[in-house]
Amino acid sequence: MRIAMVGTGYVGLVSGACFSDFGHIVTCLDKDESKVRTLREGGVPIFEPGLDLLIDRNVREERLSFDTEPARAMAEADVIFIAVGTPSRRGDGHADLQYVYAAAEEIATLIKGFTVIVTKSTVPVGTGDAVEEIIRKTNPDADFAVVSNPEFLREGAAIEDFKRPDRVVIGCEDDRAKDVMRELYRPLFLNETPILFTQRRTSELIKYAANAFLAVKITFINEMADLCEQVGADVQQVARGIGLDKRIGGKFLNAGPGYGGSCFPKDTLALVKTANDAGSPVRIVETVVSVNADRKKAMARKIIDAMGGEPNGMKVAVLGLAFKPNTDDMRDAPSLDIIPALLDAGATVHAYDPESMGEAKKMLDGVTFCDNAYAAIEGADAVAILTEWNQFRALDLSRMKQSMKTPLVVDLRNIYDGASMRGQGFVYHGIGRG
């Protein structure tokens, strides 16, 4: 099948590359000429493990291409995916749909023959209706169907998630479109992947509901961690104890500095706004949004308190800047709240992240960025671990202790054992471990 993917951001690029690896002919479209040029020259504008090799293979085998001009690709396409950004709208928190609607207008003028138009972007309930109305108004003679097909890709594991997903959700009420979507995802039938067909509005809500529920789990275990610190319990054992209950499950029960990234912050906020507009507020999610924002500020205070409450002139080594490991994504990362608070308290910050420092430099002022973890740690009064990159899990502790001015570690990801660290002479503070 021929696919046009509108948008070469995280979702569009990963989805386009994976569809081409299934054997489909994919053209990824973007208005950004420099990004398209980079992709044509073999570069990849985002970090995602394995994506560079996937793109290279499918470009060489002529199943994947990149273009700024959409006319030919859209005219030939059996399926057109809209995979553009839907950031939070300034001022009110609603999802900003201007790029989705602009894509719909352009698609309407270029499609020929029956075409399935799929919203892959995360969009509020009713967006598919609006897209259909835009296309119908722009081109009354167009033969098309609008489908919702939300993505459930974890940054850092996106290729595996696409090729071996828990489920594929398709919101569709047109029989011809259902047949097209079944053919599109036919390679997944071999893995017996559940394909869930729903109404379009239901599909749109499934995406928001899934992300909100996971955000609730994260926020819940973070509050349990605070309680554990007050009563002398261990949040990791609490998480394991409740996670073994199959009704709860162990995923997303790792206490930390709060959720960030491209999805949870904007999607929980957008769901709150959508629910309020519908007259059916989601109070739990409202609370989660508020608690998570406070969480990041509280983590900065935790580091400051561990340093005696007045870190003026003291050096903090921050290990990890991205919101999670195996990505360079800095969107709503806890580091963006924690580091400015440390700087405001008078501390100096030396930071290192394996992948995200290019982005971090655009977003954080007053920080010294280092070439490796040990360079950041040298002469530090405290080390704060903000992201659980694998290379931070087995640091040379003897070297680390010798190079630090004060052997203080604030581990906001609980990647070290407190008793072992203290036994080696460190002053160690974890999350939710008494």
Q: In summary, what is this structure?
A:
This protein is an alpha/beta fold. 44% of the residues lie in helices and 14% in strands. The strands form 3 sheets. The chain has a 6-stranded parallel sheet, sandwiched between helices. Strands 11-10-9-12-13-14 form a 6-stranded parallel sheet. Strands 7-8 form a two-stranded parallel sheet.
- First-residue to last-residue Cα separation: 57 Å
Give the DSSP E fraction (strand runs of 2 or more residues): 5-15%
Q: Can you identify the CATH superfamily of the largest domain?
A: NAD(P)-binding Rossmann-like Domain
CATH class of the largest domain: Alpha Beta
Strand order of the largest sheet: 3-2-1-4-5-6
Q: Examine the coordinates and then state which fold CATH places here, giving the name of the CATH topology of the largest domain.
A: Rossmann fold
How many strand segments?
14
* Corresponding CATH architecture of the largest domain: 3-Layer(aba) Sandwich
| Envelope shape | globular
- Protein structure class: alpha/beta
Number of helices: 17
- As a whole number of angstroms, the C-alpha radius of gyration is 23 Å
Tell me the number of structural domains. Answer: 3
Low-pLDDT stretches are: none
Largest sheet report: 6 strands, parallel
What fraction, in percent, of the residue positions are helical? 40-55%
Topology:
Layout: E1 2-6, H1 10-21, E2 25-29, H2 33-40, H3 51-60, E3 64-67, H4 71-76, E4 79-82, H5 98-110, E5 115-119, H6 127-138, E6 144-148, H7 158-163, E7 168-171, H8 175-184, E8 195-198, H9 200-231, H10 235-243, H11 264-277, H12 283-306, E9 315-319, H13 335-344, E10 348-352, H14 357-363, E11 367-369, H15 373-377, E12 382-385, H16 397-403, E13 408-411, H17 418-423, E14 427-429
Parallel strand pairs: 1-2, 1-4, 2-3, 4-5, 5-6, 7-8, 9-10, 9-12, 10-11, 12-13, 13-14
Helix pairs in contact: 1-3, 5-6, 9-10, 9-11, 9-12, 11-12, 12-13
